[in-house]
Amino acid sequence: MARYQVTLAYDGTHFYGFQRQEERARTVQAEVEAALRRIGWQDRTILAAGRTDTGVHASGQVIAFDFDWRHSPEALGRAMNSNLPSDVAVRAIAVARDDFHPRYDATARTYRYQIFCEAERDPLRERYSWRVWPAVDCDLLQSAARLLTGTHDFAAFGSPPREQGSTIRTVYRAGWRMLAGGLQLEITANAFLYHMVRRLVFWSVLAGQRMLSLQAFEHAIEAAQPQTPGLAPPQGLNLYQVCYSLDGLKSEVTKSDEI
Questions:
Q1: Residues labelled catalytic
Q2: Residue 111 annotated as binding site
Q3: Where is the active site (predicted)?
Q4: pLDDT band at residue 247, thresholds of 50, 70 and 90?
């Protein structure tokens, strides 16, 4: 029996989130567990680094499970992919230590959120991006992102995974970049609150459209009072990477800064 660490990618469009649900809703966890059972896995549940919401994508979700598999990890990855639907894929697999936990062992997570500014709808681009209009001022977006770095109480922008849990999080880096198809926020933190990234994106876009001042945005962060700001839609969000060492985080930051 060994514990396996697996990196998953999935298109969240047709999933009701990652976590398995009691009702017959289609979830990523349920599809992965069904694929594993078809190749002989008999455990009850898999572990995951995060529980993405309905419609949210991932290119770097990490899961773990115990399995008495007699072949190589690569063969296990191929067997899983042969039994997974087309919108879920194993991207990497390795044997982990026996007590590895993808959530509690993580040192940082990176999310990416993509927008594009067009007056007219574009169904293909809108599958993975939020169409924003009026257009945003890129300099204001970057200024809003700079307000996020450091350790803050983000109670205004999300809720903790457990009742009475801490809403303090440390954002290591946050910044927007220009892409051929629009703009992308990349944000890395030790952990995130529920809906935190989507609320921060919504407020950042308001600032970029000059509908909200940077001072008001900064005040909301500093006040740390639960509010009811809007949510950016889920389809622009991607769980891009989960880090398991500070060295890995530093190398990723260096690599990203070069883009």
A1: 53
A2: yes
A3: 53
A4: low
